[in-house]
Structures are given as structure tokens and as C-alpha cells.
Amino acid sequence: MNIETAASQLEALGNQTRLRVYRALVRAGVDGLAVGHLQDRIGIAASTLSHHLHRLIATGLVTQERHATTLICRANYAAMNGLVGFLADECCADAKAPAQDDAA
């Protein structure tokens, strides 16, 4: 993952409402949630939800799929794992190695 993608995704999740939407979708699992159920769960207006979903979709964190008249939203777990991995891969990269005990 490049730093621009990571920054964009982190910026999208930096909004409290978008983070709540994303967490609800992550918790829902691979089946996702219908937009109406997601709206009920989060408790926000449809237009507000649409705005926040658009941002999450644009950054690749969420996908949508239409089933007849129902729009299903799903967390993109590959994108989530990529972002978490991007952060974790750098953990302690510049830390000093522990000193070796010469007496051993």
C-alpha cells in the first residue's frame, strides 16, 4: 500500500460518523448490511449516510452491491487488512536493537 492511499483511508476514518458506519459494517461480516438497516443502526438521515458512504467507497474501504431494490454495503476486508498491515509493518523499524551482553 502506498502512503497516499493509507492517508486517504485514515482521513476518511477520521470522521466520527464515518468511523461509526465503517465499524457497523465490519461488525456485520461478509453479508454486509442493507442501507436501510445501516441507517437504522447508526441513526442518521439517509442523505447524511449517503454522503459518508460515498467517501468510504471512494477510498476503497466499503463496497456496495445492488440486489433487486436493496443496496447492500460491505466492509472491504482486504482494504482494511492492507491498512492495518501498512501501519503494523513499520512497528519499531527504527528502534535500536537490544545491546548484546559480551559476558555471556
Q: How would you describe this protein?
A:
- With 104 residues, the chain is an alpha+beta fold.
- Helix content is 55%, strand content 13%.
- The chain has five helices and three strands.
- Strands 1-3-2 form a three-stranded antiparallel β-sheet.
- Strand 2 and strand 3 (70-75) form a beta hairpin.
- It is elongated.
- It starts with a helix and ends in a 16-residue tail after the last helix.
- The model has no long low-confidence stretch (mean pLDDT 93).
> What series of H and E elements makes up the topology?
HHEHHEEH
* Strand line-up of the largest beta sheet: 1-3-2
Name the helicity range: 40-55%
Low-confidence stretches: none
Please state the second-level CATH architecture.
Orthogonal Bundle
Main sheet? 3 strands, antiparallel
Number of β-strand runs: 3
Radius of gyration: 19 Å
**Strand proportion:** 5-15%
CATH class: Mainly Alpha
Mean pLDDT: 93
Count of DSSP-assigned helices = 5
Structural class: alpha+beta
How far apart the termini lie comes to 42 Å
Defining traits:
3 strands; 104 residues; Arc Repressor Mutant, subunit A; elongated; three-stranded antiparallel sheet; alpha+beta
